Amino acid sequence: QVLLVESGGGLVQAGGSLRVSCAASGIIFSINAMSWFRQAPGKEREFVAGVNWSGGSTNYADSVKGRFTISRDNYRKMTYLQMNSLKPEDTAVYYCRATAPGSVYYWGKGTLVTVSS
Predict the structure, then answer these.
(1) How far is CA 38 from CA 109, 113, 117, in A?
(2) How far, in Å, CA of 117 to CA of 102, rounded?
(3) How far apart (Å, rounded) are the C-alpha atoms in residues 42 and 78?
(4) What percentage of the chain reaches a pLDDT higher than 90?
């Protein structure tokens, strides 16, 4: 079992920056990738960014490329999402997801990011 806890959400003005964090605990040796997803009010949950366990390979949704950066700190068992040049349309609950072999997924409870115009 893997437990994920997100933090760092809050209110920020458009054009500002925010970093959200995901702390992992439990049987983390089984994880092979970490991802961030988000869900805006009334919308489906969508992929934002992903990173493999070593941190050497990342991928991003087109809507956040060049503005968001995903990173990992394996020693601290943390995954981060640095968000720059935030837009009102980035407002959402941001969720951390861990992927284990066999396409087993673990989700955190989310952290709310609100971007004001």
Answers:
(1) 11, 9, 19
(2) 42
(3) 29
(4) 81
Contact, 95 vs 113, CB < 8 A? no
| Closest C-alpha among 27, 47, 38 to residue 106 | 27
Residue 103 in tokens: 């396409």
The residues facing 69 across adjacent strands are: 82
Q: Which band of pLDDT confidence, cut at 50, 70 and 90, is reported for residue 94?
A: very high
Give the start-end residues of each E strand in the chain.
Answer: 2-7, 10-13, 18-26, 33-39, 46-52, 58-60, 68-73, 78-83, 92-100, 104-107, 111-116
- pLDDT value at residue 76: 85
Query: How far are the Cα atoms of 13, 15, 49, 117 from residue 95, in angstroms, in the given order?
Result: 21, 22, 11, 23
